[in-house]
Every structure is written in structure tokens, then in C-alpha cells.
Task: structure prediction
Amino acid sequence: MREKYQREIQDKIESFEAGYVFSAVDFIEIAGTDPTNKALSRLNELGTIRRIMQGLYYKPVYSNLLDEYSSPDIGKLAEALARKYNWTIAPAGETALNFLHMSTQVPNSWCYISDGPYRKYEIELHEIEFKHCANKEISGRSYLTISVIQAIKYIGKGKIQKEDIDRLSSNLSDADKGIILEEAKTTTSWIYQTIREVCA
Result:
């Protein structure tokens, strides 16, 4: 039975895209947490996958340029943690600006709002922070809508420039804009007015 689990888990990992980050919860349909963790630990020892931190792994990507394995993508890592603990998350602050291509600066500290508890993790040279928020800020809204609201909030009332609006608008499709306009109706009035300008 152990060999069967090992084979099925490895087959699923092979179907993941390179760089995908995962934990035992991503294999719940195959086996329970304990046998899955043992299987993942064995695959890590074999070098098939790489451990990032306790209980969290990724499918490694080899960089020919650097002649070494690349570090895991922080955004994918945050999503894996959210799946593991059943949190709803979305980028906030500089992380939201980076996600929406409103800033080219890659942050060393990655910030997310979450309906889970406050947590902070240090991964290699990066820090990931999950800040608890009220359910009304995150419930019933898509990842993209929450990100747009958080980016505008971070820039601040009266501080958002036309170039910010133009850049954000150019990065959103017409379908995205329709969804955001609908989902953001109950947000703070000045933020919604800014969203209307973005989506105009």
C-alpha cells in the first residue's frame, strides 16, 4: 500500500508545472496526511522534489544560466500556505503593486491579507507576512479585485496619479474590469471612485 501511495503521489507531482509549491493537503484524494508526508520526505531525499520548510515542498526548476536550482516563487509559496491552512489570501501593499505590474520593484518582504491568523515566515532572503483582515474585505471578491483594492489603498487617498490609473487600466481586460466594478461596489467610496476611473 505504501508503494502504491508513493507511486500515485509521484505521478501527480510529475503533472505539476515546474516550480509548483505544494504540501500534503494537495494529495488528500490519494492518502492521509501522515503517509503523504512520509512519501514527500522520501522524494525529497531522492532529490525529486525540494523541501522549502517543514511540510512545504516544490518541484525544482534548474537554471542553466545560474547552473543551480532556482529559488521557489514567493507568490506560489504563499498560495501553497493558504491551501495548507485553508486561508483566503490576496496581495497587499507593495506586493499588490508588483502583482498588478504597477511597480517593477521586487519586494524582499511580501505582504498578504488573509482571513486566517497573523503569521510571518522567513524563507531564504525573503519574508512573507500574512495580516488578518475583516471578512468583509475579502469575502465574495476575487483575488484580482482584492488586489486592486489593496493596491489603491496602499497608494493612498489623493495620492494616486494619472499614470497609476493608466498603468493599472492597461493591465486589465474588459472582462476583468466588469468583474471588479461589480465586486468592489461595497468598498470605501474614494477607492471605488478610483476603480471607476481605472475601468472607464
